Amino acid sequence: MKIAVLGAGMVGRTIAIDLSDRHDVYSFDRDEAALQLLHRKAPAVHIRVEDLTNFSGYASMLEAVELVVTAVPGFLGFRVLEAVINCGKPVVDISFFPEDALQLDALAKSKGVTVITDCGVAPGMGNLILGRYNEEMKVNRFECYVGGLPQIRKKPFEYKAPFSPVDVIEEYTRPARLMENGRIVTRPALSDRSLMDFDGIGTLEAFNTDGLRSLLYTMAHIPDLKEQTLRYPGHIDLIQALQLAGFFNEEKIEIGGQQIRPIDFSSALLFRQWKLGEEEAEFTVMRVIVEGEKENRPMRVEYNLLDHYDPVTKTSSMSRTTGYTCTAVTELVATGQFSEKGVFPPEWVGRHQACFEFILRYLTNRGVNWKAIINH
Questions:
Q1: Do 170 and 246 belong to one domain?
Q2: Are residues 263 and 349 in the same domain?
Q3: Beta strand 24-29 with 342-344: parallel, antiparallel or unpaired?
Q4: Measured between alpha carbons, how far is 244 from 295 in angstroms, rounded to an integer?
């Protein structure tokens, strides 16, 4: 099948390489250096410099392809997805945009295409797991904890970002929405700090971020839902100090006769502090907990993941866990195993047992191993 991958960044590159083993893959991006790096790693992938903000050009750009994967920055994601749907192409998306993807459901149905969004590790796998067990039991509580961290802890932040610092800052500043006792509540980002232990890692700190997304609405019958981010202990204090000092403010201030937004200045500095090296060892850790009842008996499901940078393929764990989840779902669409029309968040894919099990097998075959503990 001819598949287009829009975006040749770290995760987009991993997606294109994985799909190129079985499909005719085209990668489009405006960054020629990123495309050349992809081509060196996977010469079979067709690369082309394209301005992905030129939405009027999508019809000709995508004319020859049968399926599209969108892996663009979040601020572009919604409009890119809309443009692809307007071309009548099925699409799998990992762009993590702030808008509600379900606003495009009517458009997708009118075009007769399948659209699956948020197909990464988080959001993504947590949604798939909850969607599956929501079919098996009466769920009362869902918790998801996730973090991507460098193997070597380097002061002061002990953190490296696999994506843009401005997107990380957004995660630290946007209020977090949770479901508590059947009602959506808002908490400040970085709040409700706690310490958690993880095998093979040790102690990490967890805190609120706005990661539940579609689950707040598709799983509104579940009384308690929360997602938290994981970092090395002490990271929150540094971020809160910067925040309180105004480093993340968006109102311009004058410096040396120039008007500058503090957040732009901070992002430029943090880019150097947080940039993840191409061959830097890091890991992704995640824990998903689903609690409730089955046949009037308590049931608890826990899925754990610990994935490391792959030194053989030189692929980061965040790329592996995000990208391979995306390519697994892409295979479901490409092979017709999931063919419903409209926009679907991952939980609506995971409710199908065959789809859920296919994704887990697919990940296992690539060394991304989820471990389940089921008590009932």
A1: yes
A2: no
A3: unpaired
A4: 50
